[in-house]
Amino acid sequence: MRMRRKTGLVLVVVFSLLIGMLPISEVSAKGKVDKKKPTVKLTQTELNWTKKSVQVNVSAKDKSGIKSIHWCKGKVKKTASKYWLAAKSIKKKKYFKAPENGWYSVKVVDKKGNKKIKQIQISNIDKTGPTGSLKYTVKNKIATINVTSSDPRGVVSTKWAQGYITKKGVSNFPNEVTNNSFTGKSNGYYTVRLQDGVGNVSLVYVKVELWKDLRDLKIFDRSHSGVFDATVYDRWGKMYSNPIGISAYSGTISYIEYDLNGAYKRFSGTVFRGKDMPDKENAWFKVYIDDACVYSSKIMNYKTEPFSFDIDIKNGRYLKIYSYSEKYDGIYGSYSEGEGIYFVDTQLYN
Each residue of 215-265: pLDDT tens digit? Predict the structure, then answer.
């Protein structure tokens, strides 16, 4: 009988010790361990399409109180700390901002150590501008530039400016594109600004060549001619930069020839006599396409002012310009700056 009493006393003592080993926070008023997880709700504040980050409000409740809230990008399902090393803490303001589409996870820990993971998928962020392309055709030195564009949110604004513009501000683009096209009247770059329905902007470019400067082409053949890397004056003192020059002395065969590869319909330019060309020397020039003369200029005497020409060259391949002059007193000379006929604004176009 004594042994039984002793055993019962020992059991009571052991049970009491075990209860005492449990943290006070783990035991409810009724002596039960609180294993209930917090209540967590995630709500995104913007449901329409937007180019901005989306705010996600976090509501977390628990009778014991909330100890910590963390969030991270991705679909994290495990609560162990090693899976949340890159997570960010939410403290006073109970929200976070999702910078891009995808899954986001939130871990809430209450003051009794219970953990809850809640996830939300964001899919209404669009930070990509419209796609577009520019193509052009040329007629009579005027380009028609056609604009093609598309965007899932729609293209709501299309504007253009001349030049290679890198700043996207709308004030840099004073011209509106109508009927998906516009005209350009100068060589060089044109920039088109495309804006979609949520405000994303893209810039697209095209380099327009309304004409090709003959001086930029490689000379195929020549005699007493060339492109001057200098300035030349006419009789009236007007200055011209980098003209094509051809000797205009009688007794010489002077010409310059280019291979156009049949790419152009017309050839235009301005011609003048160099200031040092003798007054008694009358000169003129002829234009040949594939060895057939297509233009012969008027006689240019010392009083002839610079004049323009515009010639149909019929998409020929070889363009050849000959210069001619009348012999005066049997004097010949060598070709030098100011002594010859010169061509500027030499434009090949379609």
Answer: 999 999 999 999 988 899 999 999 999 999 998 876 678 999 999 999 999
Query: How many Å separate Cα 138 from the centre of its chain?
Result: 23
- For residue 67, give the H/E element and its range: strand 66-73
pLDDT digits (tens, 9 = 90+) for 23-38: 444 444 455 788 899 9
For 80, 91, 121, 146, the CA distances from 42, given in Å and listed in that order, are 21, 15, 10, 47
Residues 284 and 296: their CA atoms lie apart, in Å, by: 8
Interatomic CA distance for residues 307 and 347, integer angstroms: 14
One-letter-per-residue 3-state SS of 81-99? HHHHCCCEEECCCCEEEEC
pLDDT score for 30: 54
CA 102, CA 122: separation in Å to the nearest integer? 5
Asked if 228 contacts 242 with a C-beta cutoff of 8 angstroms, the reply is yes
Residue listed under structure tokens 């294993």: 35
Q: Token pair of 147, please? A: 């604009």
If DSSP codes are grouped into helix, strand and coil, which group holds residue 15? helix
Report residue 299 as tokens: 């006689």
Q: Which contiguous run of DSSP H or E holds residue 181?
A: strand 181-184
Three-class DSSP category at 75: coil
Residue with tokens 């094509």: 244
